[in-house]
Amino acid sequence: MQYQTEILIPIFGMLTGIIIPVAVFIWQYKDAKGKRETVLEISKNLDNPSKVEELLNIFEERKKEPIDYRRNGVITIFVGVGLYFLGYYALGSILKGVGALVGLIGIGTMIAGYLYPNTGKELTDAVEKYEKE
Question: CB–CB of 87/123 below 8 Å?
Fold first, then answer.
């Protein structure tokens, strides 16, 4: 009985690495399929092509704003701090090093957020402020 358990654990571990990505792919496909069918049904009843284009823009999920590096940097810093303290209190020096690395990556990301303008709104506000002066 002990021998069977020793074989099953690695097999289930390897299968997990395959099952999870396949399950996510199937889930995303089915989710997008419902949206495609909905757009198709609605577009059959619309006469104006501009309304079809507007409908497609509604269902588009991509964000049109650039990445906010400052926000991502702060999140990454705190993940690094959490990993560091987990290593400090429980798991040892390797996790402390990983936490410090992640925290430093977060600091670099946050600095990049201050060096490069983030959103169109910030650029517009800066231009309007300059034009008023």
Answer: no
Query: Could you tell me which of 73, 102, 74 has the C-alpha nearest to residue 87?
Result: 102
**88-103 CB burial, b ≥16 within 10 A, e <16:** eeeeeeebbebbeebb
| Domain range annotation of the chain | 1-62, 66-133
Residue pair 77/105 in contact (Cβ under 8 Å)? The answer is no
Helices (H), 1-119: 2-45, 49-59, 69-86, 93-115
**Residue type at 80 in one-letter notation:** G
From first to last of its 133 residues, what are the pLDDT tens digits of the chain? Answer: 566 778 888 888 888 888 888 888 888 888 777 777 777 777 777 777 677 677 667 666 555 566 778 888 889 999 999 988 988 888 888 888 999 999 999 999 888 887 876 666 666 776 777 777 6
